[in-house]
């Protein structure tokens, strides 16, 4: 689990990122979870935007993504979800 200080650090890092995934009408599916998992392995920290036409609320989407990818939820702000997962081969972020 991430501590408060670590979450603040990750939020500041994520501020400059653009969302690279969008959750839309279809919601979260296996393929999306797999792709997000691979992107987390490559980048460790990423943003996902929840589109207006998504049938699930953003907290449900965040919960499903966290369970599917075994990542840490850094924050949900507006329609944007920030996820972090330490990379095994490609470690770039040193947590405080």
TrEMBL record:
PANTHER family: RNA-BINDING PROTEIN YHBY (PTHR40065:SF3). Residues 1-96 form the CRM domain. Transmembrane segments: none annotated. This is RNA-binding protein. It comes from the Bacteria. Gene3D superfamilies: YhbY-like (3.30.110.60). Keywords: RNA-binding. Pfam families: CRS1_YhbY (PF01985). InterPro entries: RNA-binding_CRM (IPR001890), RNA-binding_domain (IPR051925), RNA-binding_YhbY (IPR017924), YhbY-like_sf (IPR035920). The lineage of its organism: Bacteria, Bacillati, Bacillota, Bacilli, Bacillales. SUPFAM superfamilies: YhbY-like.
């Amino acid at each position: 689990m991430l501590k408060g200080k670590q979450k603040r650090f990750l939020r500041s890092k994520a501020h400059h990122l653009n969302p690279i995934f969008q959750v839309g009408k279809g919601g979260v599916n296996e393929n999306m979870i797999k792709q997000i998992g691979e992107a987390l392995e490559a980048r460790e920290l990423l943003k996902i935007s929840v589109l207006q036409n998504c049938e699930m609320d953003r907290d449900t989407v965040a919960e499903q993504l966290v369970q599917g990818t075994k990542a840490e939820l850094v924050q949900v702000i507006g329609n944007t979800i920030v996820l972090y997962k330490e990379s095994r081969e490609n470690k770039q972020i040193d947590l405080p």
